[in-house]
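Task 17 of the worksheet. Students: predict the tertiary structure of the chain below and write it out as structure tokens. Keep your answer in the requested format; marks are given for formatting as well as content.
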Amino acid sequence: MSLHPSLQSYADAWTHSVEAISELVTPLAEGEWNRATPCPGWSVRDIVSHVIGVDCEMLGDPRPIHTLPRDLYHVQTEGQRYQEIQVDVRRHHTAPEMVSELEYTIIRRSRQLRNESREPGTIVRGPRGVEETLEYAMRRRAFDIWVHEQDLRRALGTPGNLDSPGAHVTRDMLLAILPKVVAKDAGAPANSAVVFDVHGPVEFLRTVRVDAEGKGTIDGAPSLGPAATIALDWETYVRLACGRTTPEAARDALKTEGDASLVEAILASFAVTP
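Model answer:
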């Protein structure tokens, strides 16, 4: 047996991004591994450590036994603390050690995916110790690793792959959350609509509609007389949604129309990653 067809796109997206990450970091000098990235509190080494750590958990490896230092200002929640273990345990690893472990993890994980025969609905223990379906775990993994590829690209000044397979998985993941952001988190009024017009390597126009009960839905049809319209480029959309920039810092990349207070409420709620 082989990978279920509905999972193949997620495996392909993971492969594309993890190989890109490997190509980015393999030639780096020791000092370059310490460069800060847009991911709060994490260096290039930290992001690669996270990539290795999560894929080791997907492989079923035991988690490291490690005590975190108390001065990690960016670690505020239990979820962040859980993730930081895999990162902090590698903070003193050398560049050759990092590259070697990354390459070995890619080989192991690629073999696991080639031999994966479980159904998409199979319940698995995903990263962070949460039980979820195999399909969701693989979709979220493809999303996560593409976002971290982009973190590394910005840190290293090597832009690219904004329209890769992982970008399209990311688009779908972020759009699925958008109705909650608009209707619940930002409190858009009942019987209103908000239009998002995104241009660039990944383009889309989506309308979030809020019904009489305050529930949000999303579709690709334009709205006549929306309460607000937010237009921006794809990279800015991702950076805002993943907490890599703030609405204030991204203001020049935003074009908005309609209810200004609603726009501000949406932008204030836009970051959805932990």
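Marker's comment: Helices lie at 5-25, 44-58, 78-88, 95-114, 134-156, 165-185, 234-241, 260-268. The two ends are 36 Å apart (CA to CA).
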